[in-house]
Structure formats: C-alpha cells, structure tokens
Amino acid sequence: MTAPMTAESTTQPPSPQPHFVLAPLAAHGHVIPMVDLAALLAAHGARASLVTTPLNATRLRGVADKAAREKLPLEIVELPFSPAVAGLPPDYQSADKLSENEQFTPFVKAMRALDAPFEAYVRALERRPSCIISDWCNTWAAGVAWRLGIPRLFFHGPSCFYSLCDLNAVVHGLHEQIVADDEQETTYVVPRMPVRVTVTKGTAPGFFNFPGYEALRDEAIEAMLAADGVVVNTFLDLEAQFVACYEAALGKPVWTLGPLCLHNRDDEAMA
C-alpha cells in the first residue's frame, strides 16, 4: 500500500544560492564598477566572486574585509598572473602600472594566460557558478565559460548610446572607412543609429581604434557577440531609446543596473 503524501514529503529542496563570478579587466575604470556590481549582487543574496590579479586582489582587501563584517557573500579571488610572459616587469599587474602606450597590447595579451588558473578555480568549485560576467574584452574568460558550458554575460561600463555607436561602427565597416581617409576633420555618420551621430577620425567610437589593435578589437567583438547578454552601467530613465536599440542590434538581453556607484552611498547620503 502506498504511503499517503504529506506536506513534508512533497516539500521541494531549496534552490541553490545563485553564484556569479565576475572577471573585470585589470584596470581601475573597469575593476571599480564591477566591484560595485559584485557588492550589489551580494546585497541581494547572491554569492559574488570577483577574480583578478594578485596586485588588484591586495588593493581590494578592504572590500573583502567589509563584506565579511557585513556577512555578505562576496569574495575576492586572486589568480596567478605573470606579466613577464609578455616581457613586462613583474609588478605590471594592473593597467595603471603601464608606463607607455606601447605596453598595453602586450599587457592585454599577457592577461590571456589567466584562462588556465581561472578554469582551475571554476572547476574546483563544489557547484558550477550560475553565471560568469566578464569584461567585454576579457576573451580568456569567454573561452572558459564556453568550454564549461556556463552562461556568460559581458559587462560594459559606458552608456548604451556609446556602446551602440561602437557596435555599429564595427559591424558596418565605419572604422575601415575612416582608416583609409587621411583627413582628420572629415565627418562620418555612424550607421544604424536612431538619431544622427557624426564623428571624425579623432572622435570615432571604440577602444581599439589605433593601428596594430585590430586583432584585439576583432577578438573582443567576437567574444562579445558570443555572450548570452550584457550588463550595462546605465539606467532606463536616462536612455531607454538607446537601450532598446542596443538590445536589438546585439540580439541579446540588456540588463541596466546602474549607476553602480550609488551602491557605495549610505542612507544618509541618499536622503
């Protein structure tokens, strides 16, 4: 005879705590908003782990200590990193350490070596993370997410207006058109924008627009387009039109969670 069902026997086990692993580019302007994002996620009950180089992990020790005092599930994870593989000094573990522009490309390429320790960290977790959120140009994190079958969002710090300009400039060949022109003051219309946007060679949108950066740009765009969605440091009331257009251009969900810096303000400052 089958035992009668009871409330206790039909209770489902609790869902596991969501776990987000964040991988910012090792540069102040990229690390700071992603630290704020990690704190925001932790404040809402999700586990947040931010992976970075040893130097940045040391700099962020205060963040980890504050989270521990407040009993927030936020951790800073130090990944082994040796810039010497790219011929850089051993303390060049953050972009602010670079002494000349020519060192940026070797620095970004050196960061690709983070893929192995990052994958080892993820594989060693008791449970695979719910999601990886990586800086849009951290292709090493994108590769790990793909190999392990983990959903991945990319993070973009600028506004959706700027990001849409950047994406359309790349996808529709504006950069190639500009590079072929020697005139600095010639104006170009950014294609597929909901409003008319004109730029010059010096003001063209994008992060890897300089000669010699083409491979980095193409690699970053490929990783961006392969993501499952994007988190942007903006808010709908500011640029709803551009959020909608950016989402349509990407063909992926866009989550607007900014301004992330507001998470650092206490109740008194917010009044």
Could you describe the 3D structure shown?
- This protein is α/β, with parallel strands linked by helices and 271 residues long.
- Helices cover 41% and strands 14% of the residues.
- It has twelve helices and nine strands.
- It has helices at 7-10, 28-43, 54-59, 61-69, 104-111, 115-124, 139-148, 160-171, 174-179, 214-225, 236-250, 267-270; strands at 19-23, 47-52, 74-78, 131-135, 152-156, 188-189, 198-199, 229-232, 254-256.
- The strands form two sheets. It has a seven-stranded parallel beta sheet with strand order 3-2-1-4-5-8-9, sandwiched between helices. A two-stranded antiparallel ribbon has the order 6-7.
- A hairpin with an 8-residue loop joins strand 6 and strand 7.
- Helix 6 runs parallel beside helix 7 and helix 8 (160-171) runs parallel beside helix 11 (236-250).
- Residues 267-271 have low confidence and may be disordered.
What are the salient characteristics of this protein?
seven-stranded parallel β-sheet, 12 helices, disordered C terminus, 271 residues, alpha/beta, two-stranded antiparallel sheet, single chain
- Per DSSP, the total helix count is 12
Range of strand content? 5-15%
* CA-CA gap between termini: 64 Å
User: Helix amount, in percent?
Assistant: 40-55%
Largest sheet: 7 strands, parallel
Mean pLDDT rating: 88
The sequence of SSEs as H and E is HEHEHHEHHEHEHHEEHEHEH
Strand tally is 9
Secondary-structure-based class equals: alpha/beta
Low-confidence stretches: 267-271
- The rough form would be described as globular
Give Rg in angstroms: 21 Å
Strand sequence of the main sheet, in spatial order?
3-2-1-4-5-8-9
